[in-house]
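Support reply, case 0932

Customer input (verbatim):
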Amino acid sequence: MSGGVGPTAGGGIVLPSMGQPPPPLHPTPTSPTARPHHHYYLFSIKQLNTLGAAAVLAFSTTVPLSEIAFAVLLLPYLRPGKPNPAAPVYPGPARFLLHAHTAAGFLVGGALPALYILDGLRSGDTAGVAAASPHAFLLAAQVFTEGITAAWPWRFSLPVRAAVPVMYSVRRMFAAGEWLSQEMEEKRGGVGADAVESRRLVAGKVLAAANMAFWGANLFAFLVPFYLPKALHRYYCGEDYDAGDRGSSVDKGCEDKKDS
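Our regenerated output:
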C-alpha cells in the first residue's frame, strides 16, 4: 500500500515534483545569502571556565578594583565595525605557530600561576596569592573577552578583535611588574614551614620573571610590530601584509584607496 501518495499502478497520476531533487535545506557556500560557518561559541567550556576563574578572583578581594574596572570598562570599546569574518590574521601554516604560541602563553600565564595560587591557598601564603591574582585575573578576562569577539566575527571588525590582546597585554605588563617586585621581597608572612616558604619564594620569583619576559616579548616583539599591522593591512587592503613587499601592487592599491 502506498497510503494514497505516489504513482498508481497504472501510471496515470504523476506528481509534478517527481523526478526533481528536493530543494536544499541549507544554502550552499556560493549562495549570496549563505553565512560562513563558525565553530566559535560564546558560552563554550573554555569561556565558562575563564569567566568562573575571573569571577572567583574578583570576589576573593585579592584583585585590585583598578584591574576589575579595566576589564569591565573595556567592553564598551568592542563596537561593531565593517565585518571581516572569513579572513584570519595568519592563514595557512602560520596558524599552527600562532596556536603553539598561544598554548605556551596559557601554560606560562594561566596554568602555572593557577597552580601557584591554589598551592598558596593550601599553605596559607596569602601574600603570594595576592601578588599573583591580578595577573591571573587579567589573563582570564582577556580570554573571555576574546571569546566574545570570536563568537560574532561578522559583528566585530578585525582591528577590534586584534586590539583586545594588545590592550590586555599592555595592562598585564604593569600587573606582572608589580608581581615581580613583590616576589623580590626577602620575607613574606603567612607560611607555616620554612621549607614551604623557601619553595614558594623561588617558585614565585621564577613565575613572575617568566611572565614578565614572555608577555613583554609577546607585546613588543610580536603584537605591536607584526600582529596588529598585519590585521590592519588585511582589514583595509584585503591582502596579506609582509614587510618585504613594500612598494608592491597591494600597497599601491591601498594608496589608491586613500587617494580616492
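We compared this against your earlier run and they match. Two observations from our side: Residues 45-237 form one domain. The CA atoms of residues 7 and 13 lie 6 Å apart. Please reopen the case if you see a mismatch on your end.
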